[in-house]
Amino acid sequence: MGAVGDVDAMAKNAEVILRDAESRARYRHGAMEQAKRFDLHAVLPQYEALYDEVVAEVKA
Question: pTM for this one?
Answer without folding.
Answer: 0.59
